[in-house]
Design brief:
four-stranded parallel β-sheet; Oxidized Rhodanese, domain 1; two-stranded antiparallel sheet; alpha/beta
Length: 129
């Protein structure tokens, strides 16, 4: 591996580590906050992933690609839920950490519930989108 590529890889890894520095939350604790109306759950995977595996039953489906782009769906969602904690999940927890970090920088209270599989494996309700 050449030095510039190694440096780029190292920088990407370091920036990912900073981006993923969002409070973690277990699925059961997330479900409790959602049921109490104190938080909203967001699946930030892409639509093809939702159709493939299903989604957490209470989740709002907001793709990371929309967050990174025009925020056609994200902007109204954030306005509507300004006072609530936003709990995010994705396939592995990585994208949820990145989106969560960006939201935290804007003043939102956020948490990362990790992976969809963790939610489903906890026996929490899932649905097909």
């Amino acid at each position: 591996m050449k030095l510039p590529r190694l440096l780029a890889t190292l920088l990407a890894t370091v920036s990912f580590a900073w981006a993923a520095d969002v409070a973690k939350i277990e699925p059961a604790a997330a479900a409790k906050l959602i049921a109490e109306g104190k938080a909203v759950l967001v699946d930030c995977r892409e639509p093809s992933e939702w159709a493939e595996t299903g989604v957490a039953a209470p989740a709002v489906l907001l793709a990371k690609s929309d967050f990174d782009g025009a925020q056609k769906d994200w902007k109204p969602f954030l306005e509507k839920n300004a006072g609530k904690e936003i709990i995010l999940y994705c396939r592995s927890g990585n994208r949820a950490g990145i989106v969560g970090s960006a939201l935290a920088e804007k003043g939102f209270k956020v948490a990362n519930a990790g992976a969809f599989k963790t939610w489903a494996d906890a026996g929490l309700p899932v649905r097909k989108p």
